[in-house]
Amino acid sequence: MNSNFVYDIPTKVYFGENHLSHLGEELKKYGKRVLMVYGGGSIKKIGLYDKVIEELKNSGLEVFECSGIEPNPRHTSCNKGAEICKKEEIDVLLAVGGGSVIDATKVISAGAFYDGDCWDIVTRKAPITKCLPIVTILTLSATGSEMDAGGVITNLETNDKIGIGHPLMLPKVSFLDPTNTYSVNVYQTACGCADILSHIMEIYFNMNQDLYMLDTVMEGLMKTVIKYGPIALEEPTNYEARANLMWASSWAINGFIRGGKRQAWSCHPIEHQLSAYYDITHGLGLAILTPRWMEYTLDDTTVSKFYQFGCNVFDLDKSLEPMVVAKKSIELLSDYLFNQLGLKSKLSDLGIDDSKFEIMAKKASYGNVLPGFKPLNQEDIINIYKMCL
Amino acid sequence: MNSNFVYDIPTKVYFGENHLSHLGEELKKYGKRVLMVYGGGSIKKIGLYDKVIEELKNSGLEVFECSGIEPNPRHTSCNKGAEICKKEEIDVLLAVGGGSVIDATKVISAGAFYDGDCWDIVTRKAPITKCLPIVTILTLSATGSEMDAGGVITNLETNDKIGIGHPLMLPKVSFLDPTNTYSVNVYQTACGCADILSHIMEIYFNMNQDLYMLDTVMEGLMKTVIKYGPIALEEPTNYEARANLMWASSWAINGFIRGGKRQAWSCHPIEHQLSAYYDITHGLGLAILTPRWMEYTLDDTTVSKFYQFGCNVFDLDKSLEPMVVAKKSIELLSDYLFNQLGLKSKLSDLGIDDSKFEIMAKKASYGNVLPGFKPLNQEDIINIYKMCL
Q1: How far apart are CA A210 and CA B123, in angstroms?
Q2: Out of A7, A215, A247, closest to residue B15 by CB
Q3: Mean pLDDT for all residues in chain A
Q4: Are A12-180 and A185-387 equal in CATH topology?
Q5: Which of these, A70, A125, B42, B141, is most buried using a 10 Å CB contact count?
Q6: Minimal Cα–Cα distance from B237 to chain A, Å?
Q7: What are the structural domain ranges in chain A?
């Protein structure tokens, strides 16, 4: 084993309640003109919008707004935000929302310094050289965008959903107040749990042994999500559940658990095609795909990792046959996703048929083979889609 | 449960082999005049000194040296380093060594801006207002000083060993190459493991429920140390073992696992008196104290935490009586420390008798009661010392 990596996650996090009084001082480090980016207005319903505006005004900041960021955020919304940055000479961006809002804000931060369509940034046509600083207030535990340097943007004109990342896009400061997720509904909470789990599994299911220590952390994070997801569904204002899910969501993807592993992801690119073509919730797509992907990749060469997963995450009996533990662990995961979290288990339940599987598989595999835990060619990906019908 | 905290650990870490070519570029961000701080010369034996000097010269940096930092580093050494900083107008400090060297470097970084004895900084007589930036190259997995903002300094004139910390003392960059610990001998490796474990246990043994997620991380870190300590003793050049111990040592104390817990530590202040009076290795003192402190604090009010420890770290049968699991877990920890790591188990083996227990207990409890997992008065602390004889 060799494990070589650079760890560099300087995001400062205010975790818990009543930290908002520090918002002004943090923003002022970067200037006076703030662009507040948010979504469809749920932050107004929960009273967060008013609190933020009050804090910004009290701090003597000049506030501009860019609202209406969509779930699966569009490049057109990024263009709108980047325009405001240029026109109003914005100093710092404040993203208030979930992963979609923060992802869009990241591309806006680069778009502020680019004269052209933000889609060029996403597609790497325009190199990222400079970004506005970003501060976030998180309202949904899922993508981990509040503590990582990446985002995913959708172009509905071309049915493309593409990830983009740059160290300059890493939020400087994030405010993680679990009570801001109290109003997240059962469905979005469940999808968030599936998303967090998938971020961990994309790293965990890896046959190259990296640091054992990081495997133990991943197992702990998975146990946390499995334990608290159903509690948050049952009691939306349970602080303990919301707090555990929130901090787990950040650490699932901020880079720490990745260590020296350089394996490509599997379920995410396969899912991105689903939400690009059908605009379904990313976490739901992942939930439907993941157990089928597991079944499809489980064989004699991969069984040891599933055995480890079953024993350490689901506490299965270590003395059982590895293949028995492996299969049982996939069953338990399915039970968690579809019964305990109550997510739909089939693409057909979402009105999705096999008509686009071929083009989606082609895009997911970049026209070739999707590397990762187990390399998947287009036929493999089509097979996995079919298992989800 | 409520969990409120600020997470702010911006240290950049180069983990693994062959990162040293980045040393020059990282140092140059802060200036050209570098003070290299190190210990008794072990870095020369392993060839690290030559490699570092070559890299610094190739980068066009001007190098000054402050060597001879002791284990349990003295304030007098800090004074020496601070003098050089002032005289040579040093821009940045490079600590090459273990926790002692890095701790001393932290106080030097503040001493560079103070006209007086560095001991005033340690005793809070002189406020810390400014520090030189610090870069570290770690050669011993133990204190975690490479990724935290604290240090411990000894004054042999007054038999005081005092911890001091300040955000400005946090290393900007740390180079963690596990191969730099290959030559650490069996005894120091074992003491390092005891130190890492103690850092985790001081946080873990806490009756205020904080984030479950952080408990799972702590259990994973403890399992990591328990698994790899004996392997590193047996095979000093086992990369996997050295790497796991190294990264675990940083995460045991960088603040992440602390979350919102604000409990005072127990074994560390009790041990600091031992090494202040007898100059023994800190990790050895902790190893001897910890199981006795556990026995002393185990009762009906604390048993649930020991039960959790036994089940999740030592994989004990969850169906057993909690008190049975608790006692067994302490036995297993003792076996680990004294048999598997081969550390001496008694103070009397180190030539320490009870003659100073009273004054040490008084200092450890700040003349009153040591708060923490279970509050300990002077009599309690004397009892624990006696259990170690």
Answers
A1: 43
A2: A7
A3: 96
A4: no
A5: B141
A6: 12
A7: 12-180, 185-387
- The tens digit of pLDDT for each residue in B170-192 reads 999 999 999 999 999 999 999 99
The beta-carbon neighbor of A227 closest among B4, B212, B227 is B212
Q: Which helix (H) or strand (E) holds A324?
A: helix A322-334
Closest residue of chain B to A216, computed from CA coordinates: B220
The pair of structure tokens assigned to A159 is: 């049915």
Strand order of the β-sheet with A134-138 is: A62-66, A33-38, A92-97, A134-138, A173-176, A12-15, B5-7
Other beta carbons less than 10 A from residue A125's beta carbon = 11
For domain B184-387, give the fold: Dehydroquinate synthase-like, alpha domain (1.20.1090)
CB contact under 8 A, A223 and B239: no
Sign of the dihedral defined by the CA atoms of residues B220, B221, B227, B231, in that order: positive
Give the residue among A334, A316, A309 at the shortest CA–CA distance from A216.
A309
Domain A185-387: give its CATH code.
Answer: 1.20.1090.10
Amino acid at B146: E
Q: Does B234 touch chain A (CB under 8 A)?
A: no
Q: Could you report the per-residue pLDDT of A306-356, keeping only the tens digit for each?
A: 999 999 999 999 999 999 999 999 999 999 999 999 999 999 999 999 999
Q: Using a CB-CB distance cutoff of 8 angstroms, which residues of chain B are in contact with residue A217?
A: 216-217, 220
ipTM: 0.95
Best to test chain B binding among A22, A204, A213 (most B CBs inside 10 Å): A213
pLDDT at B366: 84
**Euclidean distance between CA atoms A377 and A374, whole angstroms:** 10
pLDDT per residue as tens digits for the range A258-292: 999 988 999 999 999 998 899 899 999 999 999 99
Q: What is the CATH number of domain B12-180?
A: 3.40.50.1970
Q: Is 90 exceeded by the pLDDT of residue A366?
A: no
| CA gyration radius, chain A | 21
Q: What is the pLDDT of residues A104-152, one digit of tens each?
A: 999 999 999 999 999 999 999 999 999 999 999 999 999 999 999 999 9
CB-CB under 8 Å, B16 with A244: no
- Closest listed residue to residue A16, CA positions, set B211, B215, B257, B206: B211
What is the pTM (predicted TM-score) of this model?
Answer: 0.96
Q: What's the rounded Cα separation, in Å, for the pair B365 and B290?
A: 17
CB A107 within 8 A of CB A78: yes
Q: Given a cut of 90, is residue B385 above it in pLDDT?
A: yes
DSSP assigned state of B350: G
Helix (H, G, I), strand (E, B) or coil at A208: coil
CA–CA separation, B128 vs B109, rounded Å?
10
Whether B161 shows a pLDDT value over 90: the answer reads no
